[in-house]
Design goal:
Layout lengths: L14 H10 L1 E4 L3 E7 L6 E6 L6 H17 L8 E7 L8 H20 L9
């Protein structure tokens, strides 16, 4: 597949994977969402997210998920290799355009880089 694809292998699909990343991974939070990161032994980045009904109706939740998938697809290098990434959207997040999601991730960039500069992801404390 191409560099900008988002294949099934790159998705967190199983409930146990989501729980594992949330409980054992390290957390980096922004105003509207929290990102949990945990190393994996698969050699690929995998993405999963949860958008609660408290965020809004189905249309709004699906729009948010499309924005996150698009950001991941276009900016895979933003995330460390061989990691599972779980994004938990906070109540009240309502991006009007994709740029809002992109800008918020850019604000997280410094914190994610700090996470990577520590010896390992598992050594990081937020």
């Amino acid at each position: 597949m191409g560099q900008y694809s988002f294949t099934k292998d790159e998705r967190l699909l199983k409930s146990k994977d989501f729980v594992s990343v949330q409980k054992q991974g390290k957390r980096v939070a922004s105003k509207n969402f929290a990102v949990f990161i945990k190393t994996n032994s698969l050699g690929i980045r995998r993405l999963g997210f949860a958008v609660s009904r408290k965020v809004g109706g189905a249309v709004q939740r699906n729009r948010i998920k499309r924005f996150f998938r698009e950001f991941f697809r276009l900016n895979k290098e933003f995330f460390p290799p061989s990691t599972d990434i779980f994004i938990l959207v906070k109540h009240g997040f309502n991006p009007g355009v994709y740029k809002e999601v992109e800008e918020e991730f850019k604000l997280l960039d410094l914190r994610l880089k700090r996470l990577l500069t520590n010896s390992t992801i598992s050594d990081y404390t937020d």
